[in-house]
Design goal:
Helix content: 25-40%
Order of helices and strands: HEHEHEHEHEHEHEHEH
CATH topology: TIM Barrel
Radius of gyration: 17 Å
CATH superfamily: Alanine racemase
CATH class: Alpha Beta
Strand content: 5-15%
Number of helices: 9
Number of strands: 8
Strand order of the largest sheet: 2-3-4-5-6-7
Distance between the termini: 22 Å
Largest sheet: 6 strands, parallel
Oligomer: single chain
Length: 256
């Protein structure tokens, strides 16, 4: 990575942080309330080394295979990995081995698979429950009206530390529909606080990506997952990573 690339990354990082601060200011929040999770899918490890130098020590990956490969190549750096995409139960062992956080828990079967592997690894894992607030059949996640019952089952999995909820908004130019997805997650979180088991924390709301993180912050996001706004456009179509987005890589609203 040359000096020009370093400059562009730092400029992009500064710009994203500025936008986070401005979104917080609009709704009377502090920027310290929002965690920036850089999404490193398709980003070369050489660039991630420079990102680490720039202060980015936590990285999010959609695909567990890519996360494992990068974790191995970057094992000399004190990075933490967040898995933010759908995980098959037969891949749970890899997440249990390398991840600090998993943001897409949406079934008891997967919870059980993670629990078994985490017990073997003698580790715990922070998890967020994925909620399908858009109602799109193409998206993973629990239906909002299923989350309360799901939460009641999670204390049985002692290696899973439940921290909150995650969602993907609809991907379209109509920002009112995007905002509605984020508002629905915040409202659900507030409702669940009355009934969630004591061991279940609901502090985190992971919502918002490169094209909509400012709206998400205005609606209460505590984690924003930002990739393209930091690292630039990806070589693969967004549908390779996020279901239901179509095949275009150049759209008015970047999904991640």
């Amino acid at each position: 990575m040359n000096s020009t690339d370093n400059f562009l990354l730092q400029r992009s990082l500064d710009d994203v942080r500025r936008r986070i601060a401005e979104a917080c200011a609009r709704v009377g929040r502090e920027p310290s309330e929002v965690r920036l999770l850089p999404v490193s899918k398709t980003v070369a490890t050489a660039r991630l080394r420079e990102a680490f130098v720039a202060g980015l020590t936590e990285l999010g990956e959609n695909k567990i295979q890519e996360a494992c490969s990068k974790a191995e190549q970057l094992a000399d750096l004190p990075l933490s990995w967040s898995i933010i995409g759908h995980l098959q139960t037969n891949k749970a062992k890899y997440a249990a081995r390398i991840a600090r956080e998993f943001q897409a828990l949406d079934s008891l079967r997967l919870a059980a698979a993670l629990e078994r592997r985490l017990q073997i690894e003698r580790r715990c894992l922070d998890v967020l429950v994925q909620v399908n607030t858009s109602g799109e059949a193409s998206k993973f996640g629990l239906a909002p009206d299923s989350v309360a019952a799901f939460m009641q089952e999670l204390p049985a999995f002692s290696a899973l530390r439940v921290r909150g909820l995650m969602t993907l908004a609809v991907f379209e130019p109509d920002t009112s529909r995007v905002r509605a997805c984020f508002r629905a997650l915040r409202t659900l979180r507030d409702q669940l606080r009355d009934t969630a088991p004591p061991s279940v924390a609901l502090d985190e709301l992971s919502m918002g990506m490169s094209g909509d993180f400012e709206i998400a912050i205005e609606e209460g996001a505590t984690v924003v997952r930002v990739g393209q706004a930091l690292f630039g456009p990806r070589p693969l179509p967004d549908s390779h990573y996020w279901p239901g987005l179509g095949n275009s890589t150049t759209t008015p609203r970047q999904p991640g």
